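Changelog note: in this version the structure field was regenerated for every chain. One regenerated record is shown below for reference.
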Amino acid sequence: GRQDGPDRRPEGAPAMTDHTPAPWSYCGDFVRAGDGLYVIAQCYSGCDTGRAEARANARLIAAAPEILAALEHCLNFIANTEGELGITLDSGDAARAAIAKAKGVRP
């Protein structure tokens, strides 16, 4: 059946195996996976920006798997629209570039 939502892959979407599986969480400036015992990253900030920036970066990194899955899902709809209209949309190009960057491939 069809699966919707940022935490589920759309039917036919390739499985990602190169990164630590979600869920990721953050605690302060640490990004953790699974039960929280596995540290994926620790964010640092410059002297001028303080810990608030490091914590904001940790929140963004912790959301990355869900953001990527949601963007892949959205790209399916964008690609369908591009196909129907016979055009390439800027939003499609941006989504493809961001997905390629996240997966370490060239768009």
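Spot check on this record: Confidence is low (pLDDT under 50) at residues 1-14. The radius of gyration is 16 Å.
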